[in-house]
Specification:
This protein is α+β, with helices and mostly antiparallel strands. It is 49% helix and 13% strand. It has a six-stranded antiparallel beta sheet with strand order 2-3-4-1-5-6. The longest helix has 26 residues, at 94-119. The model has no long low-confidence stretch (mean pLDDT 88).
């Protein structure tokens, strides 16, 4: 898998082994390569305490570099024919393609999260499907993939269905309303978004803590929703409150079990449905 991103990421160029547990064999390697911006010279050195200088009002926008983030599996194919067959099967299966893309994005975000922790950066960026200039699935020799190249690959377009669903939530109008102080965002929205990001990235303990707080905030901020459907979902969340609190408390000491993770995913889906319904209805 390869993600092509505009600009430089917080990750330094290099190769990063991917493991599930300390001491285990690598499952693959993450390769980060930032290419020089088109038409740019050598990368300038950063100078400390550089004074501001007048800006040219007619200056053209600066070209930005492109960063390629490649995720290479450790287990090789049996041969070129097996690799071609695998690529053909993935290319023909939309669900499998999107599963591969989601896995690659999760790994990239895991690396970016680790970078944020290492730098103590609270506003560390994350990668979304829509933020990639290009997404590729392919195969190549060891030397090729190490250099960000491939023997054969296909580009994976973003699913149109997702775009239509996002458009249905009218994000542009809501951004304008929030920036213009005509609408005040809810605390529960931020908490639920963070819970989703944590759960998707495999940060189950963090997801449990965020979701507990997010559900408490939903019940406090949306407790008077008049819709019958909203009322049912809010009641369902209230009934899960003790269970979520117990999972979060246990999460302070150990990672949630598979059953607990399933409970988190179910409760999160209900919370997201409540917020999505509210946005669609303009609540």
């Amino acid at each position: 898998m390869q993600l092509e991103l505009a600009g430089r990421t917080a990750l330094e160029d290099g190769r990063y082994p991917l493991r599930e547990d300390a001491g285990a064999e690598p499952l693959g390697v993450l390769i980060v390569q930032a290419d020089q911006a088109p038409g740019a010279g050598a990368r300038p050195r950063r100078r400390r305490r550089e004074r501001p200088r007048p800006a040219d009002p007619a200056a053209e926008p600066q070209a930005v570099p492109v960063t390629r983030v490649s995720i290479v599996e450790a287990e090789p194919f049996a041969g070129a024919e097996a690799a071609r067959r695998w690529l053909g099967e993935v290319s023909a299966d939309a669900d499998r393609r999107e599963s591969e893309v989601a896995a690659a994005i999760a790994i990239a975000n895991r690396a970016l999260h680790a970078s944020s922790l290492a730098a103590a950066e609270p506003a560390g960026p994350q990668v979304a499907r829509s933020s990639a200039i290009a997404v590729r699935i392919g195969y190549g020799t060891g030397d090729e993939v190490a250099a960000g190249r491939w023997t054969e690959a296909v580009e994976v377009p973003e699913e149109r269905g997702r775009v239509r669903r996002i458009d249905a939530l009218r994000p542009t109008e809501r951004v304008a309303a929030i920036l213009g102080a005509r609408e005040r965002p809810l605390a529960c929205e931020t908490l639920i978004l963070r819970a989703r990001a944590d759960l998707d990235a495999g940060r189950d303990r963090e997801a449990a803590l965020q979701l507990r707080a997010g559900v408490e905030a939903i019940l406090a901020e949306l407790g008077e929703e008049p819709s019958a459907e909203q009322r049912r979902d809010l009641d369902a969340l209230a009934e899960r409150g003790e269970r979520l609190a117990a999972i979060a408390q246990r999460g302070l000491r150990a990672r949630p079990t598979a059953e607990e993770r399933a409970d988190l995913a179910d409760a999160l889906a209900v919370a997201e449905r409540v917020l999505r319904r509210r946005r669609i209805l303009g609540g």
